[in-house]
Amino acid sequence: MVEWQLREYLDAHGLSVYSLVKATGGALSTTGVYNLSRGTKQVKLETLDLIITALREMTGHDVTVGDVLRYTPHAAAPGAGEG
Predict the structure, then answer these.
(1) How far is 25 from 35, CA to CA, in rounded Å?
(2) What is the pLDDT of residue 13?
(3) What does the pLDDT average to over 14-21?
(4) How confident is the model at residue 82 (pLDDT cuts 50, 70, 90)?
(5) Dist. CA 26–CA 1, nearest whole Å
(6) Helix (H, G, I), strand (E, B) or coil at 83
(7) Cα separation of 83 and 67, whole Å?
(8) pTM to 2 decimals?
(9) Cα dist. 73→1, 21, 35, 70 in Å?
(10) Which of 9, 47, 5, 55 is nearest to 28 (CA)?
(11) Interval 35-65: pLDDT, tens
């Protein structure tokens, strides 16, 4: 499963959703970024690009997809891979 960890990233760097929205030049809405920080399941790649670009500018760090998204494999179903 892929999950957002945007809220954790913002908190770890002392950033707010509002400051991230401002850093995108208004390209993203406050509501939209709040939804992402709460773990919404859908996002356009363009939005992900805007977020990473803004976070790089705000923090001066080399932010990657792995900083704002987390992948956790699903447990294999019983009997999967057999046969």
Answers:
(1) 18
(2) 96
(3) 95
(4) low
(5) 30
(6) coil
(7) 38
(8) 0.80
(9) 6, 31, 23, 10
(10) 47
(11) 988 888 788 899 999 999 999 999 999 999 9
Q: Are 3 and 67 in contact (CB under 8 A)?
A: no
The beta-strand segments (E) located in 5-83 are 69-71
CA–CA dist 22, 38 (Å, integer) = 19
The encoded tokens of residue 74 equal: 């699903």
Average pLDDT, the chain: 89
| 70 phi, psi to nearest 5 deg | -130, 135
Contacts of 74 (CB under 8 A, 6+ apart): 1
What is d(CA 20, CA 58) in angstroms, rounded to the nearest whole number? 8
The single-letter code of the amino acid at 37 is S
In the DSSP assignment, the letter for residue 73 is: P
